[in-house]
Amino acid sequence: MAGAFGTVFMPEMSISWFDGNGWTTPQMVASDHIPIHPAAHVLHYSSTCFDGQKAFKHSDGSVYTFRIEDNIERFAQSSRLLHLPTIDQDVTKEMTMALLEKYADDVPDTPGSMYIRPTHIGTDVSIGKAAAPSSTSAVYILLSPVGDYFASGDKALKLLVDEHDMRCAPHVGMVKSGGNYASALHPIMSARAEHDVDQVLFSPDGIVQETGASNFIMIDGDELITPALNTSFLHGITRDSILTLARDAGYRVNECELSVSEVIERAQKPETEASLPGTAAVLAPVGELLYAGKTYTVGSGKPGPKTLALRKRLNDIQWGLAKDTHGWLTKVR
Ligand SMILES: *Cc1c(COP(=O)(O)O)cnc(C)c1O
Asked: Ligand 1: residues within 6 Å at CB?
C-alpha cells in the first residue's frame, strides 16, 4: 500500500442518509465522492463528528475489530452533543462489519491494520442555521489500510507545554468533531515553526489536558499518572485500554488533576516515562518537554521500557498473540 497514513481508501464506503424522519437502508457506494450541496450545514457550521478504530488480521487470516462497541458509543455521544440526528448504533456496527467482511482480504498484515473512519455530517441546505442544528444528515464509514506507524523507528517526541492556548472550547473537548482540530491548528503550527517541537501539550492555566490528537500518560515508578476524564479533552479508548492493562500489571493508576509543575517535577527523575496514547500510534514515547523557555528531558529521554512493554501488551492482544482477557476483540471473519 502506498501513501501517507489516511490517504488510501477502499473503493467503497457504506452510507446511510437521515431525511429528518428516518434513515435510508445502508448502501455500499463509491468512496471517492459524496453528493452534498455547497450550502450544506457541515461545510459552514462544522456539524461533523467522526471516530477512529482499527481492524487487525491474525496469522490464521481471521480479522477482528478492537472495542468496536465503545467506539460506536463515543460516535453516538459526539453526534448527540452536536445535536445531529440520533444514530442507530446497531446499524452502524452492521455497516462496519459488512464493509470489513467485503474488504477482509485487504486488511494489511500486522503491524499494519485497517483503519475504520465512521463520519457523521449535517446536510441541511441552509446557511441561515448558524445557531441551529442540522435536521438531516449522513453517516458513512470509510476504510483505510495503514502500515506500521513506527516503520521509520521509534523516536521519543518533543512537546511544547502550552499553558495559554486551549485545543478547543472546554465544553466540547470530548467530542471528536472537525472544528476542534481546526481550532488547535494555529497553536500547533506556531509551536512547530517557533520551537521545532512535534506536538503541543495543551495545559491551559497550568492543568494538563492532552495534545492535538492523543492523550497524555506519565509513569513514575509503579505509578501511572494521567488527567482524570472531564469535558475538556477526548476520552481515548487507547488511554482506557492502557490504564486497564497497567492495573493488570500491578501499576497504581492515578487519574487526577495533573498540573504542569507536577509533570516537570516528575519528568526530572531518571526513570520517569511519558507517552501519548491514541489509536494511530497506540503509545508514542515522549522524550522532551519544552516549558517556559527551558528543555526538560523526561527520564532518560529515550522510549521508556515500561511504555514499550505496555504498548506490546496491547498490540499482542490486538494481533492475536495474547489472550483477549477483556473481551475487546470482535470477529469479522
Ligand atoms: C481520537 C483522539 C484521541 C485518542 O482516542 P483513541 O480512542 O485512543 O484513538 C485523543 N485525543 C484526541 C483529540 C483525539 O481526537
From this structure: 52, 176, 210, 213-215, 234, 236-239, 277-279
235 Cα to the center of ligand 1, angstroms:
7
The Å distance, Cα 177 to ligand 1 centre, comes to: 11
pTM over 0.85: yes
Which tens digit of pLDDT belongs to each residue from 125-153?
Answer: 999 999 999 999 999 999 999 998 888 87
Distance between CA atoms of 322 and 249, rounded to whole angstroms?
Answer: 14
Q: Which residues pair with 264 in a beta bridge?
A: none
CB 187 within 8 A of CB 165: yes
Q: What is the pLDDT of residues 211-252, one digit of tens each?
A: 999 999 999 999 999 999 999 999 999 999 999 999 999 999
Counting from 1 in the atom list of ligand 1, the atom nearest the Cα of 240 is 8
Helix (H, G, I), strand (E, B) or coil at 185: helix
Task: Pick from 234, 240, 311 the residue to mutate for probing ligand 1's pocket: most ligand atoms within 8 Å of its CB.
Answer: 234
